[in-house]
Amino acid sequence: MNCDIEKNVKNCNCTYPCHRKGKCCDCISYHRGLGELPACYFNSAYERSYDRTVENYLKSIGKR
Questions:
Q1: d(CA 25, CA 3)
Q2: pLDDT in tens, 22-50
Protein backbone atom coordinates (compact mmCIF):
# COMPACT_ATOMS: atom_id res chain seq x y z
CA MET A 1 0.00 0.00 0.00
CA ASN A 2 1.28 3.45 -0.88
CA CYS A 3 0.71 6.35 1.45
CA ASP A 4 0.08 9.80 -0.04
CA ILE A 5 1.83 11.71 2.74
CA GLU A 6 1.40 15.14 1.15
CA LYS A 7 -2.37 14.65 0.83
CA ASN A 8 -2.62 13.19 4.34
CA VAL A 9 -0.71 16.11 5.90
CA LYS A 10 -3.16 18.57 4.34
CA ASN A 11 -6.05 16.77 6.06
CA CYS A 12 -4.29 16.05 9.35
CA ASN A 13 -5.52 18.12 12.29
CA CYS A 14 -2.81 16.93 14.70
CA THR A 15 -0.86 19.82 16.25
CA TYR A 16 1.70 17.64 18.02
CA PRO A 17 5.16 17.73 16.39
CA CYS A 18 5.68 14.12 15.35
CA HIS A 19 7.53 12.12 12.69
CA ARG A 20 4.33 10.14 11.97
CA LYS A 21 2.38 13.15 10.65
CA GLY A 22 0.87 12.20 7.30
CA LYS A 23 1.73 8.52 7.80
CA CYS A 24 -1.72 7.43 8.92
CA CYS A 25 -0.91 3.72 9.16
CA ASP A 26 2.01 4.45 11.50
CA CYS A 27 -0.03 6.94 13.51
CA ILE A 28 -2.98 4.59 14.02
CA SER A 29 -0.69 1.71 14.93
CA TYR A 30 1.21 3.88 17.42
CA HIS A 31 -1.90 5.17 19.19
CA ARG A 32 -3.63 1.80 19.13
CA GLY A 33 -0.61 0.32 20.90
CA LEU A 34 -1.12 2.89 23.65
CA GLY A 35 -4.87 2.24 23.87
CA GLU A 36 -5.54 5.67 22.35
CA LEU A 37 -7.08 7.22 19.25
CA PRO A 38 -5.23 9.48 16.79
CA ALA A 39 -5.91 13.23 16.60
CA CYS A 40 -8.17 12.88 13.56
CA TYR A 41 -10.92 11.50 15.81
CA PHE A 42 -11.09 14.75 17.80
CA ASN A 43 -12.37 18.24 17.06
CA SER A 44 -9.90 21.12 17.35
CA ALA A 45 -10.60 21.95 20.99
CA TYR A 46 -10.16 18.38 22.18
CA GLU A 47 -7.20 17.70 19.89
CA ARG A 48 -5.20 20.53 21.44
CA SER A 49 -5.42 18.84 24.86
CA TYR A 50 -3.29 15.93 23.53
CA ASP A 51 -5.56 13.64 25.57
CA ARG A 52 -6.05 10.81 23.08
CA THR A 53 -7.91 8.46 25.42
CA VAL A 54 -11.10 6.73 24.34
CA GLU A 55 -12.82 8.28 27.36
CA ASN A 56 -11.88 11.77 26.15
CA TYR A 57 -13.16 10.90 22.68
CA LEU A 58 -16.50 9.80 24.11
CA LYS A 59 -16.64 13.04 26.11
CA SER A 60 -15.93 15.04 22.94
CA ILE A 61 -18.90 13.50 21.15
CA GLY A 62 -21.20 13.84 24.14
CA LYS A 63 -21.29 10.19 25.18
CA ARG A 64 -19.85 10.78 28.69
A1: 8
A2: 999 999 999 999 999 999 999 999 999 99
For 62, phi then psi, to 5°, come to 80, 25
Q: Can you tell me the distance from the alpha carbon of 54 to that of 33, in angstroms, rounded to the nearest whole number?
A: 13
Q: How far apart are the first and last CA of the chain?
A: 37
| Cα 49 to Cα 47: distance, rounded to the nearest angstrom | 5
The residue range of the domain holding 29 is: 5-60
Domain count, the chain: 1
**pTM metric for this prediction:** 0.83
Give buried/exposed letters for 20-56 (b at 16+ CB in 10 A, else e). Answer: bbbbbeebeeebeeeebbbbebbeeebbeeeebeeeb
